[in-house]
Specification:
The chain is α/β, with parallel strands linked by helices and 271 residues long. The chain contains 13 helices and 5 strands. Strands 2-3-4-1-5 form a 5-stranded parallel β-sheet. The structure holds adenosine-5'-diphosphate and magnesium ion.
Length: 271
């Protein structure tokens, strides 16, 4: 008697039963590739183990890709940027050895932080995103948020009496990107909330932070030198600073597009 409720019972052709059992086991990629792999196996004289390995490896790859895509979506990265896309020759102040070391993701394993400092357009956000993509690919959870959104989100939670829970949600991703710290100064509440976040993540998870303000200017960002020192003390204890001094890449692109050309040049271009 066939007691199986699933589609992997003993009725049907061998092929149907194979599809049935792959479906039951939720091996959907192997299920989709079965015929192609069977055909290939029947043509050559490779061992059975080759066929099985190929099929299962395809399944494993598909699952890993799906996990990566899902984790990437959850991270809310604002754009897809990679280290391969980054032109290091345009930004010679960046120490490539330092970036190679960061790329090993040792800092994520050790819950260390990375701070990207420099003027607008030099690639701070690009590099922070690219390293985060690497971390996600390696299986780490990540989240991206601007400093402004982070502080207003925590402020709202505090007003609604759920700050603890909200703080925990910002502690749980192994990598937290805090973008554009310092573009807007924090008020007293904002400074305290940011301090609480940095304290909560301290030695638990990495922060990748970008800022156009050098550390010496953080007193004015926090409106309070003591608070700035307390934040920097925790943030920088286990950290790498990537200091970028150079021209804006956006400016380079605009120059190339002729948007910064003289009025006559522009006119000639339009014609
Ligand atoms: P920042 O965060 O420092 O203001 P971004 O990282 O946003 O600058 O860079 C501005 C734009 O220029 C982005 O589209 C980024 O991908 C690009 N960009 C910046 N620097 C480079 C570079 N060295 N190579 C390639 N693209 C770059
Ligand atoms: Mg930026």
């Amino acid at each position: 008697m066939n007691s199986s409720n699933g589609s992997s019972g003993s009725s049907g052709s061998l092929l149907e039963r194979l599809h049935g059992v792959l479906g039951d086991l939720k091996l959907s990629e192997a299920d989709a590739l079965l015929e192609a792999h069977l055909q290939r196996a029947s043509q050559g004289d490779r061992p059975y183990s080759d066929f099985l390995l190929d099929l299962l490896e395809a399944e494993a790859r598909a699952r890993q890709e799906a996990r990566f895509a899902q984790s990437l979506k959850r991270s809310r990265l604002p754009a897809a940027k990679t280290l391969e896309q980054f032109d290091f020759t345009f930004q010679p102040s960046i120490d490539q050895t330092q970036i190679r070391e960061l790329r090993t993701l040792r800092f994520v394993h050790e819950a260390g932080n990375v701070v990207f400092l420099g003027p607008p357009g030099v690639g701070k956000t690009h590099l922070a995103i690219a390293l985060t993509v690497e971390a996600i690919r390696a299986g780490f959870s990540a989240q991206f948020i601007t400093a402004h959104d982070l502080v207003s989100d925590l402020g709202k939670a505090a007003r609604q009496g759920r700050l603890e829970r909200r703080l925990r949600s910002f502690v749980s991703p192994r990598v937290l990107v805090v973008d554009e710290m310092g573009y807007l100064p924090l008020d007293e509440v904002g400074a305290t909330l940011f301090f609480q976040l940095v304290t909560a993540r301290y030695e638990r998870g990495s922060i990748l932070l970008t800022s156009n303000k050098s550390y010496g200017d953080w007193g004015s960002v926090f409106g309070d030198a003591v608070m700035a020192t307390a934040v920097l003390d925790r943030l920088l204890h286990h950290s790498t600073t990537v200091n970028i001094r150079g021209d804006s890449y956006r400016m380079k692109e605009r120059k190339k597009a002729g948007l910064l050309a003289t009025p006559e040049q522009r006119e000639n271009q339009i014609k």
